[in-house]
């Protein structure tokens, strides 16, 4: 039995493209010209549907459309035995694997596979991306984050940053974070910090969009307002660290002074005479003695 697949002439109007994709007009015209001058170098691959009247395209959309553009009524094809769902997946994966796909095509492919019931791990294995990336894209798709998906499609926001932005509860905060990142006003590692600052402020009643009765309506969040919020929080934390350092230095001075004084028997006798027989717990722990 020969391993060489049988090539049949299939009517072009009997073939269904399960995974259609847009193509570059210039590149497509070059393909049409090449086929017109040199002929078809490689047949397309199809799978015959039950009833033997229609076929599903597995790979070769460009060649099929070129034949149709040239007015050809049939095209050489290798016929394989595969279910419609398998044809769709093979076509999709083949399109991603054989050329430099765009972010838009990848996002659409992931969404299509997810709709067909594939798990994040199965999709990752089929398209050759990490499970974390697949999870992020599915999260955005399932939560209807069209603007963030568009940003990921255009390659201006990485999927990890889009995930952080999507978890902001307010739409205006999401939009402001996305715009600030696109404008390079904030680096990616500050997106999470800003989102947490806004969430903390909202929880404590000092949010950018107060809901309390009688509160004056707040202006929608903007990239500038988010950056100011980050700057204020940075200044607050810097001041806190500075105060903590000052407090620590003063405590060290007190501990050192007490250690020297408690080494003096006359000073200890004086404290006992005045009724001071114990030390505060915090000082006792640092000095290493509880009683005088």
Characterization of the model:
Among the domains are: 1-100, Alpha-Beta Complex (Conserved hypothetical protein from pyrococcus furiosus pfu- 392566-001, ParB domain), CATH 3.90.1530; 245-287, no CATH class. Strands 1-5-3-4-2 form a five-stranded mixed sheet. The longest helix is centred in the C-terminal third of the chain and has 40 residues, at 223-262. The chain contains 13 helices and five strands. It has 292 residues and is an alpha/beta fold. Helix 4 (103-115) packs across helix 7, helix 6 (131-142) crosses helix 8 (159-166) and helix 10 (188-203) packs across helix 11 (223-262). The chain has helices at 25-38, 61-69, 84-97, 103-115, 120-127, 131-142, 146-153, 159-166, 171-182, 188-203, 223-262, 265-273, 281-287; strands spanning 7-11, 15-16, 44-48, 55-59, 74-80. The chain is elongated.
What CATH first level of the domain at 1-100 would be assigned? Alpha Beta
Spans of 5+ residues with little confidence (pLDDT < 50)?
210-215
How many E-type strands?
Answer: 5
Note the beta-strand portion. 5-15%
Characterize the largest beta sheet: strand count, sense, and whether it forms a barrel. Answer: 5 strands, mixed
Stated plainly, the CATH topology of the domain at 1-100 is called: Conserved hypothetical protein from pyrococcus furiosus pfu- 392566-001, ParB domain
What is the gyration radius calculated from CA atoms?
Answer: 34 Å
- Record the strand order, biggest sheet: 1-5-3-4-2
Judging by the overall fold, what is the CATH architecture of the domain at 1-100? Alpha-Beta Complex
Helical fraction: 55-70%
CATH superfamily of the domain at 1-100: Conserved hypothetical protein from pyrococcus furiosus pfu- 392566-001, ParB domain
Mean pLDDT: 80
Order of helices and strands: EEHEEHEHHHHHHHHHHH
Helices, by number, come to 13
Q: Globular, elongated, flat, extended or rod-shaped: what is the shape? A: elongated
Q: Distance N terminus to C terminus?
A: 101 Å
